[in-house]
Amino acid sequence: MTYTPFSIYGADRPARWLITCxxxxxxxxxxxxxxxxxxxxxxxxxxxxxxxxxxxxSLRLGELLDAPVIxxxxxxxxxxxxRGMDDPTLVMRLCDGxxxxxxxxxxxxxxxxxxxxxxxxYHEALEGLAAARTAPVIIAMHSFTPQYKGRAPRPWxxxxxxAKPENRFGHALLSHLSKERDLTVGxxxxxxxDLPGDSIDQHALQSGRLNALIELxxxxxxxxxxxxxxxxxxxxxxxxxxxxSGL
Length: 247
Prior knowledge:
Blueprint: E1 6-9, E2 17-21, H1 41-44, H2 54-65, E3 69-72, E4 94-95, E5 98-99, H3 108-131, E6 137-144, E7 158-161, H4 168-177, E8 185-187, H5 199-203, E9 210-217, H6 224-245
Parallel strand pairs: 2-3, 2-6, 6-9, 7-8
Antiparallel strand pairs: 1-3, 4-5, 7-9
Helix pairs in contact: 2-6, 4-6
């Protein structure tokens, strides 16, 4: 199968929603370090290489919302599509205790090549999907590890990241989630939603599009059954939030 930097599912689905999955894959394309970044398989299966469970959750959520879904087909360790091009973590050399051997000696020319070959095509396709929709609501799906090495456990099952100048939907979603008594909900946790140059900044904040970045703790979406359950729950919550907010 010929490699492409991204895949789009349901491009013609008519809903306002657009589901994005920046860290969908742990694949290393053959043009990057010969397809092997020098990490053992157990590291490539961890959160450092991709957002565990996010792809399956995103695909099911898109089906339920009748919305298109765009997913990356390359590992975040190759180049991180959820970073600005001047971000020092665009290409990681060390992550959660693991040295990324294939990136150890990466230079500016190689980073620029990866931007052209993988990063830019994904963002151009994402922007094309957003621009083709009337009043789109961009939902960026991510997952996070329950605990980084040497740090405190993370209690949130779900979190919503949001930032100005367009955080209305994020706030409305947090308000709705606060009514879900069985959940511990993070507000801009475990990360701050204000990350200049990230995907939401590029495709939502700079153009005033409604948005929210949803983080699910990855032990909540390890299996296909868990992913489907969360997608079904989120589909209802997102639709209700949009209707109740009047946005």
